[in-house]
């Protein structure tokens, strides 16, 4: 039975048993594309079979949240909705059948789940899952096709990316919840839900960057700098960072980038500059901007014969790849990476321990911290290119 410390109106703590009950809490609700998020009281149902209800302690804002909030993809325009997919917290209660977690466990929700039983989960060649893979169009729970969030007037509020972390409490499929070491700092573990894991995993798992290799990273936000960190930790000899934001370029130099390029200051295509300074092209490039023109530059910046481009940016337009099929006969390759090719429940706990022991400098990715009530300011910081990750305290 869950015992959660909650505060009453006189600020005196009291024990309230919440397991099996509907919880009233604060959440940031998106009511329409581009409209300011409204922090308001909502109702959160108890977890059903194979579900977990989590008390969120920290959450952060990612570009994927930003794009969904702006309504860039019309197919994702489902309202009202609770966005958010980077977070950390503590298990408040579990539904029937959940055996790998219990009340009080420290956890990280993940948007790309792992059931452990399907053909995808059993394959060593994929980190996707037949039932719980990332799906931006999904807005209800897998178990019964219903929501677990409600307005106080009884209207449904829809889910986002299997997680919906912009809420003091959220209900998540157990396949999308990872138990971590209770000694791990929850604030920094928040970053493992998406950004850092995605970028660093792309360097470690997807590309398998090796000592002495050369790398170009296009787009130096949190995902891009995580790819930089992954390449640096693997011993890459040269890491070229490309961005049009001078502040991001300056920050990148402190985080392992050896060369910086601002395309706005060049009189020739970026790929030509990269080929000149890297003896014909880099071994690996990472596209983290979600821009088709940038993707083409990333592809052409790699070396003929073996160059690999890893696609990480989210492309919301219906436009197709800007490549002629014959260009693939040069030996260059291109591949997409979801969640850094980490199997969430299987591999993330070990990655979290590696981070605890200093394998990744997580603190450097947190540029701002705000109370949850100022979530709209966190969105503005990201839009203005001022923040890597703004962590919100709930």
TrEMBL record:
Instruction: Give the UniProt record's GO annotations in the biological process aspect.
Output: formaldehyde catabolic process
Which is an annotated GO molecular function term of this record?
alcohol dehydrogenase (NAD+) activity
Q: Does the keyword NAD apply?
A: yes
Q: Does the keyword Transport apply?
A: no
Gene Ontology CC annotation, any one: cytosol
Write the record's keywords in alphabetical order, separated by commas. Metal-binding, NAD, Oxidoreductase, Zinc
Pfam families assigned: ADH_N, ADH_zinc_N
The Enoyl reductase (ER) domain extends over 34-392
What the entry lists under CDD domains is as follows: alcohol_DH_plants (cd08301)
Q: Please list the cofactors this protein needs.
A: Zn(2+)
Entry similarity comment: Belongs to the zinc-containing alcohol dehydrogenase family. Class-III subfamily.
The entry describes its oligomerization and partners as: Homodimer.
Name of protein: Enoyl reductase (ER) domain-containing protein
Q: What organism is listed for this UniProt entry?
A: Lactuca sativa (Garden lettuce)
Q: What is the lineage of its organism?
A: Eukaryota, Viridiplantae, Streptophyta, Embryophyta, Tracheophyta
